[in-house]
Amino acid sequence: MHVDFHYFGTYAMARAAGLRPEICQIIATSAQFVDDNDGNGTTVDFEDGGRFVTSPTAHPMVHIDNTVLGDDQRRVWLPFHFLPGGEGDGISERLVCRKDSAIAQQMVNHCLSLIRKPFGLHLVGIAAHVYADTFSHYGFSGVSSRWNKVDGESLTLLNDERDPVSEDRFLGKYGFTTYLDNWRQSLVDSVKSGVAEIGTGALGHGGALKYPDYPYLEWEFSYEHDGWDQPESSRDNSGTYLEACEKLHAVFIRIGQDNPDFTSGPYREFADIREAVTRILKTRETDKEKRSLLWMKAAEEGDLFASGEAMRPYPGLGWKSELDTLQNRTDSRDAFEMPAFRFLQAAATYRVYVLRSLLPEHGLIVD
After folding, report:
1. N or C: fewer beta carbons within 10 Å in the chain?
2. CA proximity to 103, closest of 360, 347, 358, 356
3. What is each CA distance from 183 to 4, 86, 191, 222, 245, in whole angstroms?
């Protein structure tokens, strides 16, 4: 999933549920910032002796740390992008992400219980990102594993003749895109899938390229692993993304019911916006910025909210720059006023809960 869903789709579901615009913006920004907080981690020192260490919640797919089954896979990709479903026998199978799993639902409930903390809305945004990812990343795990390997020759686009990943960053990095585009599509996908698995260390859905992240795409594939009996070899992304929207909308309805002061005006039932959301998700557009415009246009035309209104812009770049201004400040308490710091508080709280409490409760010790 990209910014069109994690920010604009999340914002739309929260606002349709009746939450105030400023609250929708915090939740949706936090949801997208999970992907944008992709640095290596830095230490911020204050003149008064205060200090905190930033921790990434994502890495670019070609980042060298992704290829090693160590801290970055277990502390970044696994909890924030491929939440384990806990189903199956061996640990490798139980680490596979599952759509709308019981673990994911328990995670959401826990994060909602902390919503009144100073970082509570940021935590809800992180939970929204992770929960939504279970509807696109299911069938793959956040660690290097043979269970993630895809038969490249089986990759088939069913409703798009174009190759939406011909300019993938990792393919450009390895210098393959120039001549691959002259090959037959099935062979192109086969070779790209193999390059992706090597470049990412068989992490996540690298072998399936970026196909899970395009909301309109219908596609097919097969796993390489003989023991991996997965029926979901045919994917309709718009259908599963629609499921994610309905589930997120229900979560935000709960927030409004439990916290009336977070609401502004009436909410809309999901049935009332289903047609508009379906239209957005099914639009065949590879450009995520243009897909974002679809959400904005629908909002302004009154197709999503109780009344037509503009969606607030994504301020994530400002959040990033905030952290740079903190270095060497005199008073460490300045950090409390910055959304980026609250996001980092929420991310740290979330990471510890998932890795040290939630997953062990389901028999998974990974960190």
Report:
1. C
2. 358
3. 31, 40, 10, 21, 37
Give the position of tokens 């199956």.
88
Phi, psi angles (nearest 5°) of residue 234? -115, 125
Output the pLDDT for position 60.
64
Task: Retrieve residue 105's tokens.
Answer: 């639902």
Q: For the residues 100-114, what does the mean pLDDT come to?
A: 98
The predicted structure's pLDDT at residue 162: 57
pLDDT of residue 196: 40
Phi-psi region of 56 (alpha: psi -120 to 50; beta: other; left: phi over 0): beta
- CA distance readout (Å), 218 to 71, 96, 98: 34, 22, 19
pLDDT at 63 over 50: no
Residues 164 and 286: their CA atoms lie apart, in Å, by 6
**Residue bearing tokens 């090959």:** 183
Q: Which long-range contacts (CB under 8 A, 24 or more apart) does 87-91 make?
A: 91/364
Dihedral sign from CA coordinates of 293, 294, 297, 303: negative
Does the pLDDT of residue 327 top 80, yes or no? no
Cα separation of 363 and 151, whole Å?
30
Mean per-residue pLDDT of the chain = 83
CA distance 367 to 147: 20
- For residue 262, the Cα-to-chain-centroid distance in whole angstroms is 24
Residue 140's alpha-carbon distances to 107, 181, 203, 206, 208, in angstroms, are: 19, 27, 8, 9, 10
How far apart CA 53 and CA 48 sit, in angstroms, is: 16
Q: Coil, helix or strand for 84?
A: strand
Q: What is the pLDDT of residue 324?
A: 73
Report whether 46 contacts 330 (CB < 8 A): yes
For residue 226, pLDDT over 80 is answered with: no
Q: Which has more confidence, 298 or 231?
A: 298
At 253 the pLDDT is 97
In angstroms, how far is CA 143 from the centroid of its own chain?
Answer: 16
